[in-house]
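Annex B. Sample input.
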Amino acid sequence: MSILTPFALPPISPLVVGVSGGADSLALLALLRETGQALIVAHFNHQLRPEADADEAHVRAVAEKLGMLFTNDSADVAAYAAGQRLSPEEAARKLRYTFLFRVARERGAAAVAVAHTADDQAETVLMHFLRGAGLSGLKGMLGQTLLTEFDDRIPLIRPILHLTRSETEAVCHAKGLDFRLDASNADTTYFRNRLRHELIPLLETYNPQVRAALVRTANSLQGDFELLNNLLDETWQACVKATGVGYIAFDYQNLLRQPEAMRRNLLRRAAFSLRPGLRDVDFGALVRSTALKDGDFTGGLALLREGDTLYLAAYEADLPRGNFPLVIMELDIARGEWHELPNGWRLLCEPVAFADYRPEDEWTAWLDAESVIGRLAVRPARAGDYFCPLGMNGKSVKLSDLFVNLKIPRRMRGTWPVVTLDDEIAWVVGLRRAEVAAVQPGTKRILRIRLIHTGG
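Annex B, continued. Sample output.
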């Protein structure tokens, strides 16, 4: 009986082997030992059962008997689960893998090896089927993968994914290894245990080889999944405009042209990229999101469309502002002085000759100097602002309506700069001049207010 090893690992680098003390993990350890690979036995004590300390002592003894390095850690999984609002199974997985990959980094390991078997694979596929998973769930577990939530370089390998539990027990008997029995595996309050002890035996009355059939399904769909991923890689390059801390920006038009199934898969990949700890993405959220409209997604993520860009972003993400101007607080404008504004902008107000008048420049406002006799300031736009746009014969409009019509992103409107004269809006910077202090045919002296972007 040999290990299935569709991966090449440097023999000089050790493997960290997760060993619980059960038949599966001890069989994995024994079979890996025969390859000559350097091994580090790693045991995590979950403190969930009275016999947990005895299991730890047993694994330590096996490691000493085989002449292998042993390392261990423990945590109160139940307390952690309650504090993080996780199920005990999810909390145990998170703490266990955090430990295993920490050891792997510290010891310069080539991979972390765990003892998932063909029975585990069958249960996983059936569990995902019952939950309504798509291809990514029905493909089951891979023989080698990266769990980027724990480490983005060191792979997780499952060398005995082709062996059944009865075969791992046979390995232990053949190698003279006593294995521990976990009584909690019989507790049918856990979903996986109910599948194992109730549903699968029932399905075996219809097909005695149902476990093998489920494993074959996983193996077949893994090939389909790889094919889809290759296509997804190409489409990802065409549709993703930028990535940053907490967000991924899609080209909205390119994304809209994709089939709905491709949009679902692109958004699923983006979600996993932003939230590596997600175990799955709710299918209902994916279906809703294919409409590409603003709204909550899942996992603390949301969709936000701004013009030809669609963001999938964490609520806390600081989305890029591009080269848009902004102000945070009100600032008096002194003539002849440069004023530094956020986001790499500078403002200057100065008198100029009438011959220099160039009204077509959107980042420059021209004012009749003789009409500017009050307080000149720049401030953020406010809710409820009105102004009288130049050329509309005194008709006032809501500033919010202007922002909507010109497609200014909602998140930028509260910091958009407006220039005021005695609290009346004279210029919505970069967008519209107002009638206040407008240059007239009889204007003799001009004040020029201009913004320039210097980067930042």
